[in-house]
Amino acid sequence: MNEFDILDGQIQLTLLLHLHKLQREFSYSITFDNLVDTLMGSIWKKRLPKSLHEAVNDILSLSADQVIRFLSTKAIIDGYKADLSEFNDLIGGCNYEQEEQ
After folding, report:
1. What is the Cα–Cα distance from 51 to 28, expressed in whole angstroms?
2. What is the pLDDT of residue 70?
3. Distance (Å, rounded) from C-alpha 39 to C-alpha 88?
4. Residue 22's closest CA among 64, 75, 68?
5. What phi and psi values does residue 76 have, to the nearest 5 degrees?
6. How many CB atoms lie within 10 A of CB 62?
7. What percentage of the chain reaches a pLDDT higher than 70?
8. Distance in angstroms (rounded) separating the CA atoms of residues 60 and 37
9. Which residue of 12, 13, 54, 100 could cross-link 49, Cys pair, CB 3.0 to 4.6 Å?
10. Domain total of the chain
11. Do 34 and 71 touch, CB atoms closer than 8 A?
12. How confident is the model at residue 2 (pLDDT cuts 50, 70, 90)?
């Protein structure tokens, strides 16, 4: 594996196997995309693995806590960057644009 490819069949199989292990052991509702987001946004953010065995090792050493921590931090950052109007359904439908006028 000279060039890293997240779509590689062996990488995807490893991700699926580890996902099922995490779901079975911790009963979190972690998804495949959550694992990929955590790897690409945290573990492999600065440096992609250079070989298949590095990628597999990274995947298999990923804990449920790491995934939950990353997703929580990402949600906080995304919420901070979002426009307040995107939270109308949570706030109660108050239309801030109309109140400003």
Report:
1. 29
2. 95
3. 32
4. 64
5. -65, -45
6. 20
7. 78
8. 15
9. 54
10. 1
11. yes
12. very low
Residue 2: phi and psi, rounded to 5, are -75, -40
Inter-residue contact 19 to 30 (CB < 8 Å) = yes
Residue 78: band (very low, low, confident or very high) from pLDDT cuts 50, 70, 90: confident
Instruction: Confirm whether 2 is domain-assigned.
Output: no
Answer yes or no: are the C-beta atoms of 14 and 56 closer than 8 Å.
yes
- What is the pTM assigned to this prediction? 0.73
Contact criterion met (CB below 8 Å) for 60 and 22:
no
Two structure tokens written together for 97: 């644009």
Say how far apart CA 51 and CA 2 lie, in whole Å.
7
Q: Give the span between the Cα atoms of 93 and 53, in whole angstroms.
A: 50
